[in-house]
Amino acid sequence: MKLEIQNISKRYSSNIYGISDFSITIEKGILGLLGPNGAGKSTLLKMIATVNKPTKGIICLNKNNIVKDPNYMRKQLGFLPQDFGIYPNLNAYEFLTYIAAMKGVGGHNLKPRITHLLKGLNLIDAAKKPIGTYSGGMKQRVGIAQVLLNNPTIVIFDEPTVGLDPEERVRFRNLISDLANDCIVILSSHIVSDIDTIADRVAIMKNGTLITHGNQENIIQKVRNKVFETTIKKEQLSIFKTEQLVVSTSRKKNQLIVRYIADNPIDNSFEKEANLEDAYLYLTKMN
Ligand SMILES: Nc1ncnc2c1ncn2[C@@H]1O[C@H](COP(=O)(O)OP(=O)(O)OP(=O)(O)O)[C@@H](O)[C@H]1O
Ligand SMILES: [Mg+2]
């Protein structure tokens, strides 16, 4: 499996680009796509999913140009868009049966497959109730089930964990890890903790461009020996923030423990082990 994205741009209007001159090669495994709001994640994923066409550039899956031959992609794709619409009057079972028909999935395996997915996503008890009565997290899980119906070999989730509670996030992660052996899986998020435990590789984007791409170790390397903690008074925080790149703060009695990134630490700081969150913040703020 190889997905090659070569110099693609998406122009929405004369001066608005969703993506500009973007290239990346993605192989099997789980890729976490991180970027702040407006970075271009959805624009990129929709072009890979052949929902949109790039203004420039080509996208090849296993050497087939899917801009010209979108069906090559669609046959093996599972896609959860960020704004996933749903049919409120159907129940989960009916909805999945309907999507299966649209994807051309059928046969005697369909019923057990739907039941398996509903179980895996903890929807079996609600499966006979109309989707319109579901919570946001339940609807999101129906969306995830829909992605996996046709045993896709390339799976794209645009912000899949939005609306899921912590327990559901764990279930989702397990489901994805099971799936990932021979597939390309791309997960987007703007929250590092959604992807750092499952992504083999991470791509970070901002303003429609790729800032960095690689395994987590290599990305974390970029802030190694630059992460520190110190204790300050609460009222010093706003000034501290103007001088240092603050990752997080936590309260300690009347004071604050501040985690920050710097080339040279201020007095009374302790070096901390860098993590992906630190690297993400550093790379998106400094670029
Ligand atoms: N249909 C559209 N028409 C015009 N501009 C658009 C359209 N879709 C996206 N954009 C612009 O393209 C840029 C990238 O948007 P995109 O939705 O791809 O970002 P994103 O990384 O998915 O953000 P989010 O985290 O908020 O989902 C933004 O500046 C956005 O305003
Ligand atoms: Mg988006």
TrEMBL record:
Q: Name one Pfam family in it.
A: ABC_tran
| Recorded superkingdom | Bacteria
Q: Name one GO molecular function term.
A: ATP binding
Keyword check for Cell membrane: no
* Domain called ABC transporter: residue spans: 3-232
SUPFAM superfamilies from the entry? P-loop containing nucleoside triphosphate hydrolases
Recite the UniProt keywords alphabetically: ATP-binding, Nucleotide-binding, Transport
Write down the PROSITE patterns for this protein, in alphabetical order. Answer: ABC_TRANSPORTER_1, ABC_TRANSPORTER_2
Family recorded in the similarity comment = Belongs to the ABC transporter superfamily.
Protein name in the entry: ABC transporter ATP-binding protein
